[in-house]
Amino acid sequence: QYDPSQEKLEYNYTYDDAQGLKPPQSFPRIRNRGEMYIDSFNDQQWNCSLGTNEEAGTWMNSGDQAGTIMAGLVWLLMIYSAATVTLLSLTAGIPVIIGMIYCLLVVMALASHAKTSLTDPGSVPR
C-alpha cells in the first residue's frame, strides 16, 4: 500500500540541478493494479464530482432539470445537423469544403457550450 511519507509516485517538478552537483532523481514507483492516481503536482481539485459547491470538481447545476434537458437537445440537434451535412457532402449534394467548415463550426460551438455549461459563472460584483 502507498505511504506518502515513505515513497513518491511522481517526479519532483521543482528539482533544479543546473550545475550538475546533485544526484539524479530516482524514477517514481510504478502503481500497483487497483491503486488510484494521486496528483500532488498542483493544488487544484482532483475529484470528478458534479455540483455547485466549492469542493466540486466540475461545476454543474444539477437542480436545473429543464436546463439539462435543453442542453441535451442542443447537443443532439447539433450532432444531427453535422451528420446530415456530412452525408450531403458525401453524396455531392453540397461542396465538401462547405461540409468541412460547417462541421468545424459545430465542434467549436459544442466545445464552447460545454465550457460555458460546466464552469463556475462566478459572482456579480456589487
Explain what you see.
The protein has two helices and two strands; from the N terminus they run ββαα. Strands 1-2 form a two-stranded parallel ribbon. It has 126 residues and is mainly alpha-helical. Helix content is 38%, strand content 3%.
Précis, in short:
The chain has 126 residues and is mainly alpha-helical. Helices cover 38% and strands 3% of the residues.
The pLDDT mean sits at 76
Report the portion of residues in β strands.
under 5%
Question: Which spans have pLDDT < 50 for at least 5 consecutive residues?
Answer: none
Number of E-state strands: 2
In order across it, which strands form the biggest sheet? 1-2
Helix/strand order: EEHH
Distance separating the two termini: 50 Å
Shape label: extended
Helicity, in percent?
25-40%
Radius of gyration: 23 Å
Main sheet characteristics? 2 strands, parallel
The number of distinct helices, counting runs of at least 4 residues, comes to: 2
SS class: mainly alpha
Notable characteristics:
126 residues, mainly alpha, two-stranded parallel ribbon, 2 strands
Task: Give the SSE layout.
Layout: E1 50-51, E2 58-59, H1 65-90, H2 96-117
Parallel strand pairs: 1-2
